[in-house]
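Long-time lurker, finally posting.

We've been working with G12008 protein (Coccomyxa viridis) and I want a structural starting point before designing mutants. I don't trust myself to interpret raw outputs, so I'm hoping someone here can both generate the structure tokens and explain anything notable. Sequence follows.
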Amino acid sequence: MQLYTRAASSCSFRIRIALGVKKLPWEAVLVDVAMQQGEKYRDLNPQALVPFLVDGKAKIGQTLAILEYLEEAYSDAPRLLPGDILARARVRAIASFVVADIQPLQNTGLDDYFEKEGVNHFAWKQHWISYRFEGLEKMLHPLQGRYSHGDNVTMADCCLIPQVWNAINRYSIDMSKYPAIKAVYENCIKEAAFANAAPDKQPDFTG
Ligand SMILES: N[C@@H](CCC(=O)N[C@@H](CS)C(=O)NCC(=O)O)C(=O)O
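Top reply, 14 upvotes:
Generated this for you. Predicted structure of G12008 protein:
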């Protein structure tokens, strides 16, 4: 299985975590910005985004589609979705909130445009991450377990932890305002599947 990935990409970080939790063997294809914008990569993945997963005949872009594929294709591996229907809906809601309503507002792919327009994108990103974290904190509080949903890692954690890593390391967000999110982050990041997937552990990490 090959994952097209970049150290700095929080979206790729989500899939690196999932592959680690599921203990699936994989190989990294490192995608820098020049390769991502090139014709050859667009031929493979017309969305021209990372992550992108190739697993035999499966060629899949978009984090949530990849996570759902891994869950279904490797159902004997540790599960990323709980057994209960309501629990699954809650986990998917947390994951989607990060994927659809937080990360797109801090995607570095927007930076060139912001700079051309003279927008202070650092402040813009800090604002949106903080504002959305207020909602996320309420979704998690009171924390009922070690992770976003109980005591098992789920897709929600695969999506949440990279977002918090970025908030802390790239956007200097004060996480003491979000104690439930902070607790989940601290519980996860010390575990191997999360720690090994972090940007600073990747061969293409540049700081
Ligand atoms: N919705 C996509 C978002 C993917 C995405 O935005 N990836 C970023 C890296 S985290 C990227 O490739 N940005 C470059 C660009 O927007 O041109 C997903 O969940 O996979």
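Before you design anything, note these points.
Residues 9-11, 49-51, 62-63, 99, 107, 109 surround glutathione (CB under 6 Å).
The chain has two domains: 2-78, 85-194.
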